[in-house]
């Protein structure tokens, strides 16, 4: 049992950490486009839980650890009202929200609800980028006026042109790169006039598209990742990947992520997610307790080890 003095010291340590974390509450939310294009590495994490309890008790600590949050509405069932609440709550913690949506109209809705940027999956063509640009960088244009602005790459009228430009610069336009077709077209998709701020590699879908499913250490996969990073940084946009975690296999671990930043040109890392980090932490803790309790040795239960012996 811990002594009263050691418990008091631990309580004091936790109170100091909490006070430091609370300083982030209410701080100004940084520009997501600037964050993603910066030479300084930006760190984010996937948030799937829409619960405000997550922000109430964990928001300050999350804000002390990462620079932005990634919210996925492609694979995670999140209602529009919940999405808006999540974006607003994390913005209040100084964390801009990058939201994955499935089309341009959902991009408009996410931005209306408080998102700081959007990313669309499986982007492969210039036309797809143009459609997303219209929703992100040319708001609130729609219809014929939007079509003219996209086709002519020009907005008639100095006052409205300045208004659209300034508003658009506040929103991050990010492309999910998940296929060989996207890699082949990447230079055209990152042309300056399209206004892309960053690319985000979806490692699972990219590995499947390349024919090496979930083989994140495969040369084909790693060379593709390096190529995407190189092309992105050459174009002056952010080079990002969702490091989904070692739970999904070798090559998605922290060590590899460090190599991506240090040697491959990556400047944005989305680190795991609330659910995957919970599962990993739970497995590790239960395993450690079992080993310390003598119930498991070398990853095997005592019963199995006894049979094998």
Description:
It is a single chain. The strands form two sheets. The chain has an eight-stranded parallel β-barrel, surrounded by six helices. It has a two-stranded antiparallel sheet with strand order 9-10. It is globular, with a radius of gyration of 22 Å. Mean pLDDT is 89; it is low at 299-309. Helix 3 packs across helix 4, helix 5 (104-112) packs parallel to helix 6 (126-136) and helix 6 packs across helix 7. With 309 residues, it is of the alpha/beta class. It is built from 14 helices and ten strands. The chain has helices at 4-22, 32-37, 52-65, 80-92, 104-112, 126-136, 143-152, 158-169, 180-189, 203-209, 219-234, 254-264, 274-292, 302-308; strands spanning 42-46, 68-72, 97-100, 117-120, 172-177, 198-201, 238-243, 268-273, 296-297, 300-301.
Layout of helices and strands:
Blueprint: H1 4-22, H2 32-37, E1 42-46, H3 52-65, E2 68-72, H4 80-92, E3 97-100, H5 104-112, E4 117-120, H6 126-136, H7 143-152, H8 158-169, E5 172-177, H9 180-189, E6 198-201, H10 203-209, H11 219-234, E7 238-243, H12 254-264, E8 268-273, H13 274-292, E9 296-297, E10 300-301, H14 302-308
Parallel strand pairs: 1-2, 1-8, 2-3, 3-4, 4-5, 5-6, 6-7, 7-8
Antiparallel strand pairs: 9-10
List key phrases describing it.
8-stranded parallel barrel; two-stranded antiparallel ribbon; globular; 309 residues; 14 helices; disordered C terminus; alpha/beta
Indicate the proportion of strand residues: 5-15%
Which term fits the overall shape? globular
The structural class is alpha/beta
SSE succession: HHEHEHEHEHHHEHEHHEHEHEEH
In round numbers, the mean pLDDT is 89
User: What is the percent of helical residues?
Assistant: 40-55%
**Largest sheet composition:** 8 strands, parallel, barrel
């Amino acid at each position: 049992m811990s002594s009263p003095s050691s418990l008091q010291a631990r309580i004091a340590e936790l109170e100091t950490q909490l006070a430091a974390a609370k300083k982030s509450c209410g701080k100004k939310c940084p520009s997501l486009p600037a964050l993603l294009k910066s030479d300084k590495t930006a760190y984010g994490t996937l948030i799937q839980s829409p619960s405000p309890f997550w922000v109430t008790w964990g928001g300050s600590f999350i804000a002390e650890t990462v620079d932005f949050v990634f919210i996925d509405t492609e694979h995670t069932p999140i209602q529009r009202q919940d999405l808006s609440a999540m974006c607003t709550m994390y913005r209040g913690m100084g964390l801009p929200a990058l939201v994955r949506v499935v089309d341009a109209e959902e991009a408009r809705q996410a931005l209306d609800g408080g998102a700081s940027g959007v990313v669309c999956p499986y982007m492969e063509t210039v036309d797809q980028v143009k459609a997303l640009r219209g929703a992100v960088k040319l708001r609130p244009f729609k219809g014929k006026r939007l079509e003219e602005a996209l086709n002519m790459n020009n907005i008639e009228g100095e006052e409205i042109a300045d208004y659209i430009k300034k508003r658009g610069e506040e929103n991050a336009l990010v492309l999910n790169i998940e296929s060989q077709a996207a890699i082949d077209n990447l230079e055209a998709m990152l042309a300056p006039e399209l206004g892309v701020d960053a690319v985000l590699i979806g490692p699972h879908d990219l590995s499947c598209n390349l024919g090496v499913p979930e083989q994140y250490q495969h040369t084909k996969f790693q060379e593709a990742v390096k190529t995407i990073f190189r092309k992105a940084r050459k174009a002056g946009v952010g080079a990002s990947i969702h490091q989904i975690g070692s739970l999904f296999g070798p090559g998605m671990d922290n060590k590899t992520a460090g190599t991506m930043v240090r040697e491959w040109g990556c400047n944005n890392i989305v680190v795991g997610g609330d659910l995957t980090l919970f599962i990993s932490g739970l497995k590790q803790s239960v395993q450690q307790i079992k080993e310390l309790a003598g119930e498991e040795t070398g990853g095997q239960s005592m019963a199995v080890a006894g049979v094998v012996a």
